[in-house]
TrEMBL record, chain B:
PANTHER family: INTEGRAL MEMBRANE PROTEIN-RELATED (PTHR37305), MEMBRANE PROTEIN (PTHR37305:SF1). Pfam families: ABC2_membrane_2 (PF12679). This is ABC transporter permease subunit. It comes from the Bacteria. It comes from Actinokineospora xionganensis. The keyword Hydrolase does not apply. Keywords: Membrane, Transmembrane, Transmembrane helix. The chain crosses the membrane at residues 37-58, 81-109, 130-163, 183-205, 212-234, 266-285.
Length: 338, 289
């Protein structure tokens, strides 16, 4: 869709940034139903990538293929530089994951469940297992319930235990699938702070969520999935800007401002307290210059950022493909990068 | 952070957890599962109950002047060291296959259903290694249950029915040492037969997420092969039926030992074990986690 030169630049950029995970042409067909198709996902090293998408958009299937749990029908997956499935043994010890609902034995306590998983962790020395388990329980606030049977755990406690399992040993890459499912507001905040801690420590995090506010608050990057394909991905700030670039100008002379802008072929319309100028075809300085020349008193100028919610709604609506085309200039949609 | 990370990771180059640690963890888990414990407890009681039954029947027949039943049960009266053999032969009819099927069902299908298989695969434990660990768990617990039945059977037999030797079906009496040897041999033979069924059950277990299906299929195999072997027109099928070996187990108390029949039974079981684990492995390598 976009020009050749633009694509070349994107490819060069992609090569420069080390990636924690990378998929190309990923496709999964379950009994004739295409769950995921043409997924080219880049997870930059050190990023917190929020994976967004409506139910059934292929988030979990993509994550399961990233982790080697499910064999792709076609396409390739690279995890921490290792090609799957052959590189799984090398990559997975450094990856912590909470996929779908946490899976534990109901007749064992939280601690016993973690001890069992710790026994299977290649990087954990046998002598350090009890300490690692205790620290992990402490980290998710489960110390008090550690010796209770998993059967009696609330949904939130189960989710916390799943998180504790993902963080049993220091990881380079943590994948959390709907980590705030079933958590109360305090639990949600804790997950957010765990993600912030991981990010601060340099760990790459991929978090799938349907809670947009969550993603907006914690993520540096976003990938939006719809109907099994990535419809947009990139840095969060960049995505929000590109979504609907506009400039909000606060001025008492609304009519004068709108006329001045339209005379200079800049689309503009009146909004409460001022004017909104469209930046698709121009830049912010040009808008301000036009206004000042026309003698419009400008009190305040700021970027009109689309909320993630608006962006998400537009990307995942029916006919999203046509909408997504708008983003091509600003967003490296990797399929075109080749 | 880097320094901290390096300090905490103690086996940074390891790609697999130590095998012994995995096996211990598996056994601990299986033996903590309430239904395993209940089944083990009940099976340990089977020889005791059988012993009490024979003891009462013997009492009653002594009073009325009639002899106890014919066959193995009749032989056990006053011949306590035969009780463990008798109990294991009864157990192999249904209870021990049920145990093997249940262990196999929990091992893969159960873990898949509860999502715990996924967490193990992510640790990571490779798929073939996971199957090996699971097979070890099933095999060890099976051996443990069979040995436990023999143990309680021997104790109950000696106390309730008495006897310091083992009277064989051939009419001779074996001394204590040799009698214990025969009991041990029975334990091994019965265990191998349960392993064979468990291997078939594990193959099914690798295919499904529903433990109940595994138990149903495994017991279906047992019942079907029992029925087939009972039809004279289908005698030609006998060499491939699992139950043929099971029916040969009582031969263990003949004197001299009919090694041919017993070896054939073990070889037949070995075939089922190889087939079962091959199918289980091929499915494990491709199944979705």
């Amino acid at each position: 869709m976009t020009g050749e030169t633009g694509l070349g630049m994107v490819a060069a950029d992609a090569a420069a940034i080390p990636l924690a995970a990378r998929t190309r042409g990923l496709r999964k067909v379950y009994r004739g139903t295409v769950a995921v198709d043409h997924v080219d996902l880049d997870v930059p090293m050190g990023a917190v990538l929020g994976m967004l998408g409506p139910n059934g958009s292929g988030k979990t299937t993509t994550i399961r293929m990233l982790l080697g749990l499910v064999m792709p029908t076609a396409g390739e997956v690279e995890l921490l530089g290792h090609r799957l499935p052959d590189g799984a043994a090398a990559a997975l010890p450094e990856v912590g994951a909470l996929v779908e609902s946490p899976g534990f034995h109901s007749f064992l306590s939280g601690r016993e469940n973690l001890l069992r998983l710790a026994a299977a962790e290649p990087h954990l020395h046998s002598g350090r297992i009890p300490a690692a388990v205790s620290e992990s329980l402490e980290r998710v606030g489960l110390t008090g319930a550690a010796n209770r049977r998993y059967k009696g755990y609330s949904l939130g406690m189960k989710q916390r235990l799943g998180l504790a399992a993902a963080l049993l040993v220091p990881r380079r890459f943590v994948i959390l699938d709907e980590p705030t499912n079933g958590l109360d507001p305090a639990g949600t905040r804790e997950v957010r702070s765990v993600i912030a801690d991981l990010h601060a420590a340099g760990t790459t995090v991929l978090v799938s969520s349907h809670l947009l506010a969550e993603v907006e608050a914690t993520c540096t990057h976003v990938a939006v999935l719809n109907q099994g394909t990535v419809v947009a991905q990139g840095e969060l700030a960049e995505l929000l800007d590109s979504g609907n670039a506009g400039l909000l100008i606060t001025t008492p002379e609304i009519t004068l401002a709108v006329d001045a802008l339209r005379d200079n072929r800049i689309p503009a319309r009146a909004v409460p307290d001022g004017v909104r100028a469209d930046l698709t075809a121009t830049t912010a300085p040009a808008v301000v210059e036009t206004l000042v020349r026309a003698g419009v008193p400008v009190h305040e100028v700021r970027r009109d950022r689309t909320g993630l919610e608006d962006l998400f709604a537009r990307l995942t609506e029916d006919g999203a493909a046509a909408e997504a085309a708008e983003f091509d200039l600003a967003l490296p949609i990797p399929e075109e990068a080749r | 952070m880097t320094a901290m990370t390096l300090g905490e990771i103690q086996r940074p180059d390891a790609r697999r957890a130590p095998l012994g640690r995995l096996l211990r963890s598996e056994l601990r888990m299986v033996l903590r599962r309430p239904r395993t414990l209940i089944l083990v407890g009940l099976l340990a009681l089977v020889p005791v109950i059988a012993g009490i039954g024979i003891w009462i029947a013997a009492d009653a027949s002594a009073n009325s002047g009639n002899s106890v039943d014919e066959g193995l049960a009749g032989l056990v009266d006053g011949n306590g060291l035969l009780l463990p053999v008798f109990a294991l032969v009864i157990g192999l009819n249904m209870l021990l296959p049920l145990t093997g099927a249940m262990l196999a069902a929990d091992a893969l299908a159960g873990e898949a259903a509860s999502g715990t298989m996924r967490t193990l695969l992510l640790a990571p434990v490779s798929r073939s290694r996971l199957l090996a660990v699971k097979a070890f768990g099933v095999a060890t617990v099976t051996l443990f249950v069979v040995a436990l039945m023999a143990f309680t059977g021997t104790i109950a037999g000696v106390i309730l029915l008495g006897g310091d030797g083992m009277m064989t079906m051939s009419g001779t009496t074996l001394p204590l040492g040799e009698a214990l040897g025969r009991i041990l041999l029975t334990v091994l033979l019965v265990t191998v037969q349960v392993w064979a069924l468990a291997a078939v059950a594990l193959a099914v277990s690798a295919w499904t997420e529903h433990p109940l299906i595994v138990v149903v299929v495994a017991l279906g195999v047992v019942i079907l092969s029992g029925v087939l072997s009972a039809i004279p027109a289908l005698d030609w099928l006998d060499p491939v039926l699992m139950t043929t070996s099971w029916m040969g187990i009582p031969e263990v108390i003949r004197d001299p030992l009919p090694t041919g029949t017993l070896t054939e039974g073990v070889l037949r079981a070995a075939c089922y074990i190889v087939i079962g684990y091959s199918l289980a492995l091929s499915r494990m390598l491709s199944r979705d986690g």
